[in-house]
Amino acid sequence: MERVIIFDTTLRDGEQAPGATLNLDEKLEIARQLEKLGVDVIEAGFPIASSGDFEAVCLIAKEVRKPIICALAHANAEAVDRAWEAIKEAKRARIHVFLSSSDIHLTYQLKMGQAEILELACEMVARAKKCLEDVEFSPMDATRTTPQFIYQIIEAVIEAGATTVNIPDTVGYTTPEEFSRLIRGIFEHVPNIHKAVVSVHCHDDLGLAVANSLTALACGARQVECTINGIGERAGNASLEEIVMALRTRKDSFDLTTSIDTAQIYKTSRLVSELTGFSIPPNKAIVGANAFRHEAGIHQDGIIKEPITYEIMDARSIGLPSSALVLGKHSGRHALKARLEELGYTLSEEDLDRAFSAFKALADKKKEVTDRDLESLVAEEMRTISEAYHLEQVQVSCGDRSVPTAAVRLITSDGEVLADAALGTGPVDAVYRAINRLVGVPNVLTEFSVKAITEGIDAIGEVTIRIESEGRVYTGRGAATDIIVASAKAYMNALNRLLAVKGKE
Ligand code: KIV
Ligand code: ZN
């Protein structure tokens, strides 16, 4: 069976999604998990775009040694040099150069002709090639470019040294039938195509990213660019988990394999959702909460008799934990450790101690602590690492006859204790106003949502918020059995992200 190269761009295209801003530690944590998942290439960022991106790519290149670490550069000498600077310490490095090719982009955006594009593309590929062997080129907006020009530009960049040629459906415009014609055309009309790997990069504006990617693979493409949970610009990119599980489940049809350890999919998906603050819709294929649940009586009856009746994949194949063991207030440190390991978390002794006290506090409030509670608890502990301000205490008084009042106490990273109080239109408003008096960073709350993680009145409530400051969106999440406390934690989480970004500027 031939192997498909899995090129993950969660940390680059995925992070371009508004509100998905990740800090340095979070990017490294995702990169390490992608390595465990077994991706072949990690596109770690766009180094010329910001110092934060540059720093993250450098760090990932130094720390994550198994996959190829790729840096993106637009067709500009400074961008290519900066990309090389960022990845030069990687064990295996790649530079990915892109330049628009469609008439629409050439006329309205670049104001350049095809001849100039051809020359610039080759010049930049050759520049990257002087630094390293592994160079990828993408003609941006390829699916709205005349195929003849795509053939021409691909032939030229391969000649200049490109080892991978990537065909992006930048605006998610193509259809499987049309895309298959383009990919087949490339194999037919580009004489030196055997010297490069053909890759595809599809966006999901029409909900066709996975279908288009799979079609391209069936037509001979051997690299697919994708993201965890399908996050990315606008409607997102093709989802890694859907592509990988489609190839695996329909081996009979594709006859292609990947190096992905599918048992790591669930954990990777949860991690990316947690750190970006993008929840996974319950009906999302592969990783949605309902993806392996059967509600209809007739289906349940079939499943009990023989799972194959209604199940095309085994939930365990994506690492979905089967929760036989129920933890509660009598469970010990060992039971917690074992359960966390089954869920894919290997904690240091110190982190386990913290997780255990948080678990005990939760088990006092909740009869049964479920896997989802544990995941939320571990995530909560992770969130408190490297905070500029830590929420120490929050107290609220509210009701239909009183003015909502909140008092908060914060501790700064230097150990200073700050306290203040405020009135608000509701309890959350009062808490946010009290925090604002202490932190003093102007921002606008643009989104606020609360959801119960588990069933029952004692469920943990998870609050996700987005705030906007100087044109950037920051996500925050917080979880607690008290939703006012969860709201305060979410706000602190978003503010700490904002302050971390500002601190780097
Ligand atoms: O969608 C796109 O065209 C891209 C390129 C940079 C490959 O993300
Ligand atoms: Zn893209």
What topology emerges from the helices and strands here?
Elements: E1 2-3, E2 5-8, H1 24-37, E3 41-45, H2 51-63, E4 68-74, H3 77-87, E5 93-100, H4 103-110, H5 114-131, E6 135-140, H6 147-160, E7 164-169, H7 176-189, E8 197-202, H8 209-218, E9 223-226, H9 240-249, H10 251-254, E10 256-257, H11 265-276, H12 297-305, H13 333-342, H14 349-365, H15 371-383, E11 389-397, E12 405-412, E13 417-423, H16 427-439, E14 444-452, E15 461-469, E16 472-480, H17 483-504
Parallel strand pairs: 1-10, 2-3, 2-9, 3-4, 4-5, 5-6, 6-7, 7-8, 8-9
Antiparallel strand pairs: 11-12, 12-13, 14-15, 15-16
Zinc ion binds next to loops.
Q: How many domains make up the coordinates?
A: 4
SS class: alpha/beta
Q: Helix proportion of residues, in percent?
A: 40-55%
Q: Give the DSSP E fraction (strand runs of 2 or more residues).
A: 15-25%
Low-pLDDT segments:
none
Question: If you had to describe this structure to a student in words, what would you say it looks like?
Answer:
The chain is of the alpha/beta class. The protein has 4 domains: 2-276, Aldolase class I (TIM Barrel, Alpha-Beta Barrel); 290-319, no CATH class; 321-381; 389-504, Double Stranded RNA Binding Domain (2-Layer Sandwich), CATH 3.30.160.270. It is built from 17 helices and 16 strands. The protein has helices spanning 24-37, 51-63, 77-87, 103-110, 114-131, 147-160, 176-189, 209-218, 240-249, 251-254, 265-276, 297-305, 333-342, 349-365, 371-383, 427-439, 483-504, and strands spanning 2-3, 5-8, 41-45, 68-74, 93-100, 135-140, 164-169, 197-202, 223-226, 256-257, 389-397, 405-412, 417-423, 444-452, 461-469, 472-480. Helix 1 runs antiparallel to helix 11 (265-276), helix 2 (51-63) packs parallel to helix 3 (77-87) and helix 6 crosses helix 7. It is globular and about 75 Å long. The relative contact order is 0.08. The mean pLDDT is 92. The protein binds 3-methyl-2-oxobutanoic acid and zinc ion. 3-methyl-2-oxobutanoic acid (KIV) binds next to strand 6. Zinc ion (ZN) is lined by residues 13, 168, 170, 201, 203, 233.
